[in-house]
Specification:
The protein is mainly β and 482 residues long. The protein has four domains: 1-35, no CATH class; 44-193, Sandwich (Immunoglobulin-like), CATH 2.60.40; 218-347, Immunoglobulin-like (Sandwich); 354-478, no CATH class. It has helices at residues 301-304, 354-365, 464-467, 471-478, and strands spanning 2-7, 22-24, 27-35, 54-60, 64-66, 71-79, 85-89, 97-101, 119-123, 128-137, 150-156, 163-170, 173-180, 187-193, 218-223, 228-230, 236-243, 249-252, 263-266, 285-288, 293-300, 311-316, 341-347, 371-373, 383-384, 393-403, 416-425, 445-450, 453-458.
Length: 482
């Protein structure tokens, strides 16, 4: 497939003459035909018509979403020319995404974005990049309030040939430059449907849990409205704190459900593995008045912990000390005490999950000195790339990581030494011409279809020859890839 690519000099009215160069008033306009993708010879699926050497593609992470579910759109940009192109990136983006409802009414985002601090990203000939991912709806950080049931249409809008002043960064030095704005994309239509009723175990409702022991004028508790949950279903919990003193106290908002801070144990008292990955968080200093109660975190415990096996469990948050040294001027009363111990049960589900079964296999058979992270925090199939060179498909990802230990949480680790990444995709992915700017990034390998989905593994770390030389063959065998 061939496309006409036009480069125009300022002030010139272009006239096509079969691919020849033309001069007019001292300016030059060049027309030529190029393959849409230099290597593949054909433009990847879904892109809108190219403009000024660039084509845009808006992709939805799903065609149907349940009410309250995260709605994410991706904007990809393809360079269809045979020359590098400077693309304008940055905070200019969200304001150019137009969202309309089923009646064609434009929906305004919660806050308007400004076009400040654009920067340059250079796209190589025939390559594509993800310009942005738009968190359209979901929680308080999303662009829009939670969308109500109905049909919606989204499109990235741009004037043809538009450019913006931007900065090119060279060894942390900002150099003034001009970048092209991604052209108008295809339109994406998706639907929001009412949330399905959550499956509730009969007789599982409980009253409020008791508070933990009060210290320094504060008490905390971990609780849920139920104490029994079906396997492969959410395990909603929250940790809250109350000021039982006569004074206003201050605390730094702590990490609760992230980085393994919740202590989860099975019926034998054995710790349940945290598989949620490592995160950095903001910890602002917050006042709490006498008698006030603050929710420190609400979370699905099953997203971060290996809770796919039926049985009885306990959950406990150990509290945290003041953030930073007291010499930094942080108050002594910023220490938060531990919660109560909350007991709950996971009961067998009538709806088996292939991803939960695969997680069990990988968790039980993985090498003892390797940690397993279910890096999509979901037992369904979120939308993602099963490796750097593939088109996004519904898939669930894992990381096996051999780490050194650090004091980042009771069970978590940081400082990755070696990683083996695994994806199970609902459908087979198509290879696309992604531009890989990270020199350390390695492509994944398709290892065949399994009972749990199509298997992709990235095990290109040269150190694996020493620490886990049979990683790919082991994983393929465990998951019965064909």
């Amino acid at each position: 497939m061939l496309y006409v690519v036009v480069l125009e000099a300022p002030g010139l009215v272009p006239v096509l003459r079969g691919g020849r160069s033309m001069r007019k008033s001292g300016s030059v306009v060049v027309w030529w035909l190029v393959a849409a993708v230099a290597d593949a010879g054909e433009m990847p699926e879904g892109y809108a018509k190219p403009v000024n050497a660039l084509a845009s593609r808006l992709v939805s992470a799903g065609a149907v979403y349940e009410e309250g579910q995260d709605i994410i759109l991706y904007l990809d940009v393809l360079n269809v020319s045979d020359r590098p192109v400077d693309l304008a990136c940055g905070s200019t983006l969200e304001g150019r995404l137009r969202l309309t409802d089923g009646q064609g009414r434009s929906l305004q985002p919660r806050k308007q974005t400004s076009e400040d601090n654009p920067f340059i990203r250079c796209i190589s000939p025939g390559k594509q990049v993800e310009l942005s991912s738009f968190y359209v709806s979901g929680n308080e950080y999303a662009m829009h309030d939670p969308l109500k049931p109905g049909r919606y249409r989204a499109i990235w809008t741009s004037k043809g040939g538009e450019t913006l002043p931007a900065e090119r960064y060279d060894h942390d030095k900002a150099i003034p430059a001009t970048g092209r704005v991604a052209p108008e994309s295809n339109a994406v239509v998706f639907e929001v449907v009412p949330r399905r009723p959550e499956l509730v175990v009969p007789g599982s409702e409980v009253s409020n849990a008791p508070w933990g022991e009060a210290k320094v004028g504060l008490q905390t508790r971990i609780a849920s409205t139920r104490n029994k949950f079906y396997a492969n279903s959410p395990v909603p919990m929250k940790v809250e704190m109350e000021n039982v003193s006569q004074h206003t106290l201050h605390y730094h908002v702590p990490q609760v459900a992230t980085n393994g801070w919740i202590e989860v144990r099975d019926s034998r008292g054995k710790p349940v593995r945290y598989i949620g990955g490592s995160f950095q968080t903001m910890n602002p200093l917050t006042p709490i008045k006498p008698g006030e109660s603050h929710v420190l975190d609400e979370f699905d415990l099953g997203r971060g912990y290996f809770l796919v096996k039926p049985g009885k469990y306990t959950a406990h948050w150990p509290g945290c000390k003041a953030w930073g040294a007291l010499s930094e001027g942080r108050p002594k009363d910023s220490e938060i005490p531990a919660t109560n111990i909350f007991s709950f049960e996971i009961v067998p589900s009538a709806q088996p999950s292939p991803i939960a079964e695969a997680t069990t296999i990988l968790e039980e058979r993985g090498p003892k000195d390797w940690d397993l992270e279910h890096n999509r925090h979901d037992l369904s199939f979120p939308w993602s790339q099963p490796g750097t060179q593939w088109r996004r498909v519904p898939c669930s990802g894992y990381d096996f990581t051999r780490r050194w230990r650090c004091d980042c949480g009771p069970t978590t680790t940081k400082g990755s030494m070696h990683t083996v990444s695994v994806w199970l995709a609902r459908e087979k992915a198509v290879e696309e011409p992604w531009q890989i700017d990270d020199e350390k990034a390695r492509p994944s390998e398709y290892l065949g279809e399994t009972p749990f989905g199509h298997l992709y593994v990235e095990a290109g770390d040269p150190n694996l020859a020493k620490h886990w030389p049979t990683a790919k063959s082991d994983i393929a065998q465990w998951l019965k890839a064909k």
